[in-house]
């Protein structure tokens, strides 16, 4: 699959432009046939191949520095006929990367050290990690390319479903999502400053969940008796989850070739 029309321009300034639809791994939004964004090449690769955080980490270390540099941005504006799904748009992006960036890659799997996300108590989650069916329903925006949903209640966080949100209040942070599977929660935990290591889901939980996690950013890495709001302590007490050192086979995208494009 390929876009009908596509423009790629190098932008050598840090002027990131938000995409026309979320580039995450969820498929709740229908793109509407248009793709427009300004990002480092790496963001487009991650979207095109639907890479999880674990797959992305193992791929990024093998790429030239300019691929993930925010001083080497690329403005991509593309259109496709009809109303393709996000997964179909990913295939179109793969074709665009191969054509304009001469991008070629394949997947390989290697066993590496990881942190396993596990339940503190078997079969029991914390008070702030509940099945989505027990919470407020999501706004009906699945058929809209530019949804503007309103939270059903003011205290619902985040008001939008199917995405992660971070709220800052001084040295306190709130991480949350609604209608999220646990693998995406594991991805979010792995990318926090408190952890910054690959986290995989071994909770055994199925279905989608709503969660909020409140913690203090001054002491996020090591839980202690004197700081009950540290990240790992908050994770145990609020979500009923812990991290256990382990190993796991992780799939990574191995890049065979990539080069800078010429402007249209």
- What percent of the residues sit in helical stretches (DSSP H or I)? 10-25%
SS field, number of helical segments? 5
Given helix and strand content, the structural type is alpha+beta
Number of strands: 10
Please report the distance between the alpha carbons of the first and last residues: 21 Å
Average pLDDT for all residues: 85
What does this structure look like?
With about 260 residues, the chain is an alpha+beta fold. The chain has two domains: about 5-110 and about 250-255, no CATH class; about 115-250, no CATH class. The protein is about 20% helix and about 30% strand. The protein has helices at about 40-50, 55-60, 85-100, 180-190, 230-240; strands at about 5-10, 35-40, 75-80, 105-120, 130, 165-170, 170-180, 200, 210-215, 240-255. The protein has a four-stranded antiparallel beta sheet with strand order 5-9-7-6. A three-stranded antiparallel beta sheet has the order 1-3-2, covered by helices on one side. Strands 8-4-10 form a three-stranded mixed beta sheet. Strand 6 and strand 7 (about 170-180) form a beta hairpin. Helix 1 (about 40-50) packs across helix 3. It starts with a strand and ends in a 7-residue tail after the last strand.
What's the arrangement of secondary structure elements?
Elements: E1 5-11, E2 34-39, H1 41-48, H2 53-60, E3 73-79, H3 86-100, E4 104-119, E5 129-131, E6 164-169, E7 172-180, H4 182-190, E8 199-201, E9 209-216, H5 231-239, E10 241-257
């Amino acid at each position: 699959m390929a876009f009908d029309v596509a423009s790629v321009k190098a932008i050598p300034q840090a002027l990131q432009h938000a995409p026309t639809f979320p580039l995450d791994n969820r498929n709740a939004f229908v793109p509407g046939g248009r793709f427009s964004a300004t990002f480092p090449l790496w963001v487009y690769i991650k979207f095109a191949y639907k890479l999880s955080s674990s797959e992305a980490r193992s791929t990024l270390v093998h790429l030239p520095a300019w691929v993930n540099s925010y001083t080497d941005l690329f403005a991509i504006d593309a259109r496709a006929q009809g109303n393709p799904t996000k997964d179909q748009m990913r295939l179109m992006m793969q074709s665009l990367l191969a054509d304009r960036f001469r991008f070629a890659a394949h997947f390989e799997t290697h066993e590496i050290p990881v942190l396993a996300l596990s339940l503190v108590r078997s079969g029991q989650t914390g008070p702030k990690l509940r099945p989505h069916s027990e919470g407020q329903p999501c706004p009906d925006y699945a058929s809209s390319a530019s949804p503007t949903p309103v939270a059903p209640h003011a205290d619902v966080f985040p008001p939008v479903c199917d995405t992660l949100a971070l709220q800052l209040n001084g040295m306190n942070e709130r991480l949350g999502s609604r209608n999220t599977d646990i693998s995406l929660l594991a991805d979010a935990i792995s990318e926090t400053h408190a952890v910054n290591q690959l986290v995989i889901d071994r909770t055994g939980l199925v279905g989608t969940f709503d969660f909020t996690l409140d913690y203090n950013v001054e002491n996020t890495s090591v839980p202690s008796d004197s700081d009950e709001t540290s990240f790992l302590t908050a994770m145990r007490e609020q979500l009923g989850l812990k991290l256990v050192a382990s190993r796991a086979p992780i799939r990574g995208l191995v890049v065979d070739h990539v080069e800078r494009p010429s402007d249209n």
